[in-house]
Amino acid sequence: MDDKMKCNGCGFPYAVLRMQDLVFCPLCDSMDVEHYGKKEIDEPEKP
């Protein structure tokens, strides 16, 4: 699993996985974490 993650709140380039696959930033505890790197689907996200 080479997925990279970045916190959109503080920009910290690392996130931790907690129970139920929730991803949190260990710095600011934000859940607003964005995955970047390997893209499997090339479609823009639909709002």
Task: Please name the defining characteristics of this protein.
47 residues; 0% helix; single chain; mainly beta
> Helical element count?
0
Q: Biggest β-sheet: count, sense, barrel?
A: 2 strands, antiparallel
The helix-strand sequence is EEEE
Structural class: mainly beta
Shape assignment: globular
The parts where pLDDT drops under 50 for at least 5 residues are: none
Structural account:
This is Rubredoxin-like domain-containing protein. The protein is an all-beta fold and 47 residues long. It has one domain. Helices cover 0% and strands 30% of the residues. The protein has no helices and 4 strands. It has strands at 4-7, 16-18, 22-24, 33-36. The strands form 2 sheets. It has a two-stranded antiparallel ribbon with strand order 1-4. It is globular and about 30 Å long. The protein starts with a strand and ends in an 11-residue tail after the last strand.
Write the layout of secondary structure elements.
Blueprint: E1 4-7, E2 16-18, E3 22-24, E4 33-36
Antiparallel strand pairs: 1-4, 2-3
Summarize the structure.
This is Rubredoxin-like domain-containing protein. With 47 residues, the chain is mainly β.
